Amino acid sequence: MALPHLRLGPIDVGFPIVQAALSGYSDWPMRLVARRRGASYALCEVMLDQFLVTVKDQRRKNRHFLRISDEERPVGGQLMGAEPQQFAAGARKLVEAGYDVIDINFGCPVKKVLGRCRGGYHLSQPEVALEIVRRTREAVPPQIPVTVKMRRGLDDTQESRDNFFTILDGAFDAGVAAITVHGRTVMQRYIGPSRWEFLAEVKRHVGPSRTILGSGDLFTPQACLDMIAQTGINGVTVARGAIGNPWIFAQCRALSAGEPLPPPPTLFEQRDTMFEHFQLAQELYGDDRVGPQMRKFGIKYAALHPQHLIVREAFTKVRSLDDWRRALAEWYAEDLPGCYPDPAIHRTSTCEDAA
To answer: At 144, phi and psi to the nearest 5?
Structure first.
């Protein structure tokens, strides 16, 4: 199944299966590891407009949010907030930091986010949502694409459906380059299946000239290709399915080229990638913060180990580089075959905004 190139405005992304924004996860190390293993594009973890307007780049504890390297370009910066004016100011900060694409988050379903009138809350107020889109597009240089992330509505009422299409059409009219649609409602969070048939309806609605990406229940390479084939959308963003499994992008490329599904990475391949990931995180966060930051990734990487439950438990105890090395030495000392992660493990986990 040969897939057409994905374009975001003037940017030719290429292979249309990309890494989504993941709050608390898709930092510079995760994005770089994914790009080196086949992802053609990745989005940073979502950032608040308030934070960006006030952040001082030189503060060590904040510098990881704005870290970009040329190796990962193009890279998208995802923005979330409540007020249109401050949203535009935050978008300008992301452009100044060097992000190639500005993505507007209208999809986050976390309760505290909704309570502050951010993320998915905007799907209940089309006028404010479209004012955010217009102000952001006006604030960003014309060569920088602006994209939007949405869920299929706040809930399953007719009012929510009407609001969704009002925002969808209005955002394209305001000049956004692409819209990503997650097949669940905000109120669903991650409960129940993602409705891929809604993505097909959206793509039919906007027509062939407008770019729609899909999200939701993408835990295997075949699922990524199936979503595109079944819905006619232009590409997909892999969220929870990419945490601890950056190999999913190369596997998607192989299937798309008509090749057999590559075997899962061996334990040595996993070990080398995990150590690479740790070193990148150590460079970014420093020795004192890298252990706790990487613990959550070790837990996710463990899903590819044949003894994943025991290995997962070992990574819950990681606090430092020495702990990480001991875990790798104990559980990745022999180059045994790996396994494909069980999609059920991902379906029962959540991120603050697993795009």
So the answer is: -95, 115
228, 252 in Cβ contact below 8 A? no
Residue 166 near residue 179 (C-beta atoms within 8 A) = no
Neighbours of 4 (CB within 10 A): 10
What is residue 113's predicted lDDT score, i.e. its pLDDT?
Answer: 75
- Which residue of the set 44, 108, 224, 351 is catalytic? 108
Q: Is the same domain home to 82 and 157? A: yes
Q: Can 351 be counted among the known catalytic residues? A: no
* Same domain as 274, residue 216: no
Identify how many contiguous H helices and E strands the chain contains and give both numbers. 14, 11
What pLDDT score does 58 carry?
44
Residue 22 DSSP one-character state: B
The secondary structure of residue 341, as a DSSP letter, is P
Alpha-carbon distance of 267 to 22, in angstroms, equals 26
Confidence of residue 53 (pLDDT cuts 50, 70, 90): low
Q: Which of 287, 324, 269 minimizes the C-alpha distance to 36?
A: 269
Can you give the pTM of this predicted structure?
Answer: 0.92
pLDDT tens, position by position, 86-121 = 888 889 989 999 999 999 999 777 777 776 767 777
Q: At 147, phi and psi to the nearest 5?
A: -125, 165
Residues 142 and 235 both lie in one domain = yes
In a domain, 346, yes or no: no
What domain count does the chain have? 2
